[in-house]
């Protein structure tokens, strides 16, 4: 969510390719962050649109629309404020087991719990993302959907994989392992 005044400021200059991304956690102007739901609450019903079907069959078509009713009014969402969320998120990343080296997909699948994988630059991120079959695209110098340089996705439904960028170590106080 964002304030109307923020939307009024950003919407006229928002690139057409970003319209589907406005809910993603993405660094933007003036250091602001935008919260995106982990479970998709949008639906792409065809391959025609701003991306001209470029990524539809590989990344968008398999996305399952959320079918679980959520009582948002009954939930404490205080952890989503900037200071609270950064602490919450960095705690999740620090608790994840670090893995490295070859066969990252196999290692991640065989570890119980969340894992974190460090990448040193865009080329290494793209290589790792390709191994896992996730979106490899960068926008404005960061991976798409990254929060503080970290991309999160799930394997085998419950376990998270954190792809951790070089600046994330400093920003979130994550050990270099």
UniProtKB/TrEMBL annotation:
Instruction: Give one GO molecular function term.
Output: manganese ion binding
Catalytic activity entry: N(4)-(alpha-D-Man-(1->3)-[alpha-D-Man-(1->3)-[alpha-D-Man-(1->6)]-alpha-D-Man-(1->6)]-beta-D-Man-(1->4)-beta-D-GlcNAc-(1->4)-beta-D-GlcNAc)-L-asparaginyl-[protein] (N-glucan mannose isomer 5A1,2) + UDP-N-acetyl-alpha-D-glucosamine = N(4)-{beta-D-GlcNAc-(1->2)-alpha-D-Man-(1->3)-[alpha-D-Man-(1->3)-[alpha-D-Man-(1->6)]-alpha-D-Man-(1->6)]-beta-D-Man-(1->4)-beta-D-GlcNAc-(1->4)-beta-D-GlcNAc}-L-asparaginyl-[protein] + UDP + H(+)
- What is the top EC class of this enzyme, as a single word? transferase
UniProt KW keywords: Glycosyltransferase, Golgi apparatus, Manganese, Membrane, Metal-binding, Signal-anchor, Transferase, Transmembrane, Transmembrane helix
Principal location class: Golgi
The compartments listed are:
Golgi apparatus membrane
Q: Which cofactor does it need?
A: Mn(2+)
Q: What does the entry comment about cofactor binding?
A: The cofactor is mostly bound to the substrate.
Pathway listed for it is: Protein modification; protein glycosylation
Q: How does it sit in the membrane?
A: Single-pass type II membrane protein
So where does this one cross the membrane?
none
According to the UniProt entry, what is the EC number of this protein? 2.4.1.101
Query: What does the sequence similarity comment in the record state about its family?
Result: Belongs to the glycosyltransferase 13 family.
Q: What does this protein do?
A: Initiates complex N-linked carbohydrate formation. Essential for the conversion of high-mannose to hybrid and complex N-glycans.
Q: What is this protein called?
A: Alpha-1,3-mannosyl-glycoprotein 2-beta-N-acetylglucosaminyltransferase
């Amino acid at each position: 969510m964002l304030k109307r005044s923020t939307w009024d400021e950003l919407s006229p200059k928002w690139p057409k390719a970003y319209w589907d991304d406005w809910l993603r956690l993405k660094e933007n102007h003036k250091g602001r962050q935008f919260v995106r739901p982990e479970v998709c609450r949008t639906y792409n019903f065809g391959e025609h649109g701003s991306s001209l079907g470029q990524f539809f069959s590989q990344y968008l078509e398999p996305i399952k629309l959320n079918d679980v009713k959520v009582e948002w009014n009954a939930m404490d969402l205080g952890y989503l404020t900037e200071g609270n969320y950064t602490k919450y998120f960095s705690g999740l990343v620090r608790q994840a087991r670090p893995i490295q080296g070859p066969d990252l997909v196999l290692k991640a699948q065989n570890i119980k719990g969340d894992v974190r994988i460090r990448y040193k630059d865009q080329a290494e991120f793209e290589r790792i993302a390709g191994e896992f079959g996730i979106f490899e695209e960068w926008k404005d110098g960061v991976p798409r959907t990254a929060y503080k340089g970290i991309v999160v996705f799930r394997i085998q439904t419950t376990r998270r994989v954190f792809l951790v960028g070089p600046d994330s170590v400093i920003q979130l106080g994550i050990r270099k392992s």
